[in-house]
Design brief:
This protein is an alpha+beta fold and 353 residues long. The protein has 2 domains: 107 residues, 2-Layer Sandwich (Phosphorylase Kinase, domain 1), CATH 3.30.200; 232 residues, Alpha-Beta Complex (Aminoglycoside 3'-phosphotransferase, Chain: A, domain 2), CATH 3.90.1200. It has 13 helices and 9 strands. It has a 5-stranded antiparallel beta sheet with strand order 1-2-3-5-4. It has a two-stranded antiparallel sheet with strand order 6-9. A two-stranded antiparallel sheet has the order 7-8. A hairpin with a 7-residue loop joins strand 1 and strand 2. The radius of gyration is 20 Å and the shape is globular. This is Phosphotransferase family protein. Pfam families: APH.
Length: 353
């Protein structure tokens, strides 16, 4: 069962955290700390932390068993620190702590960005059709801006290895599935076989976010069509930037087709750009073509399904915090089936067979 919100906050040793921050951020902590859990904690538990005068956001890995290489706090902190002042808006990085003796795991602090959320159908319904259209295009623009950044220019030349990225990704998510699966699903092996046979060459290496969706951005209160922060960089690396386009499309539902069970038809609300419009906007801004985009979209559906299976496994072990986990297992099958349907109807011959 997921831990209640109060229990999740109780997991934080605020006294030890206060002592640590007083020593590492002298003069910046005005008083005793208090915290509240932000969101459902489906991935990295995120807390709103305050000393009564200042407000920060604290991120830490999930409680319980965490798969190798996942939920890397140093990775998140490094990338938002590097992107400060770039064309991609990110929260200001405040402090990274890799000493597990403070809170039982590494964690980091960032500044709280004053922005609104648009990651659910009900939140997006509050926007006008015109605002929804501009927001979708701004997401594509921000992604193109990220991918146009030379990693070396922001100190990220050693942040990852673009060569062989896609092959390693397939192997990684196959291992993640094997480590966390709670039931057998033949679709996973079928999809991995198709993706390996149709593996594209990485033509556009760069900084990859890894989890591009409206739920991972904040928008301006005065203009909810304008993105003021891109969040949740836990899977960021250097790799094939088109993998991010696939993720964006996986979370961008199509009328008349099965919805991503996470977004539940969000992008089908009146006004949002179509998938084709997003791809065109992104490609035009970068001055590139995307002939193999089906491969990246199928891979994205598979990747998201594996991530959800891992969250479900942690939930069964009692290692999730917050609420909203009861239906996670029901999301895995539809995503895998949707991926198979796209693969089998793709214009890419190798992906169909």
């Amino acid at each position: 069962m997921a831990a209640p919100m109060a229990d999740a906050v109780a997991e934080l040793d605020l006294d030890a955290l206060g002592v640590h921050l007083q020593a590492t951020l002298p003069g910046r902590i005005a008083g005793p700390l208090s915290a509240t859990l932000v969101g459902g904690g489906r991935s990295n538990p995120t807390y709103r932390l305050t000393d009564g005068e200042n407000i920060w956001v604290l991120r830490r890995p999930p409680y319980g068993h965490v798969l190798p290489s996942a939920h890397d706090m140093k990775r998140e902190y490094t990338v938002i620190d590097a992107l400060a002042g770039s064309a991609v808006p990110v929260p200001a990085a405040v402090h990274l702590c890799e000493d597990v003796h403070i809170l039982g795991a590494p964690f980091y602090l960032m500044e709280l960005v004053d922005g609104g959320s648009v990651g659910t159908v009900s939140q997006a319904e509050a926007l006008t059709p015109g605002q929804r259209h501009r927001l979708g295009l701004d997401l594509a623009d921000k992604l193109a801006d990220l991918h146009d950044i030379d990693p070396a220019s922001v100190g990220l030349s050693e942040f990852g290895r673009p060569d062989g990225y896609l092959e390693r990704q397939l192997s990684r998510w196959e291992r993640q599935w094997t480590s966390s699966k709670t039931s057998e699903r033949s679709e996973v092996a079928a999809l991995l076989g198709k993706l390996r046979r149709a593996l594209p060459r990485t033509r556009f290496p760069g900084i990859v976010h890894g989890d591009v969706k409206l739920d991972n951005v904040l928008v301006a209160h005065e203009d909810p069509a304008s993105i003021v922060a891109v969040l949740d960089w836990e899977m960021a690396t250097l790799g094939d930037t088109l993998a991010d386009v696939g993720i964006m499309l996986s979370f961008w539902d199509v009328p008349g087709s099965p919805f991503n069970p996470v977004t539940k038809g969000l992008a089908t609300l009146d006004g949002f750009p179509t998938r084709a419009e997003l791809v065109d906007r992104y490609a035009t801004r970068r001055g590139i073509e995307l002939p193999e985009i089906d491969w990246y979209t199928v891979f994205a559906d598979l990747k998201i399904a594996v991530i959800l299976e891992g969250i479900h496994a942690r939930h069964l072990q009692g290692d999730t915090v917050g609420e909203g986990f009861e239906d996670i297992a029901d999301m895995v099958g539809p995503l895998l089936q949707r991926a198979l349907e796209l693969a089998e109807t793709s214009s890419l011959h190798e992906l169909r067979h």
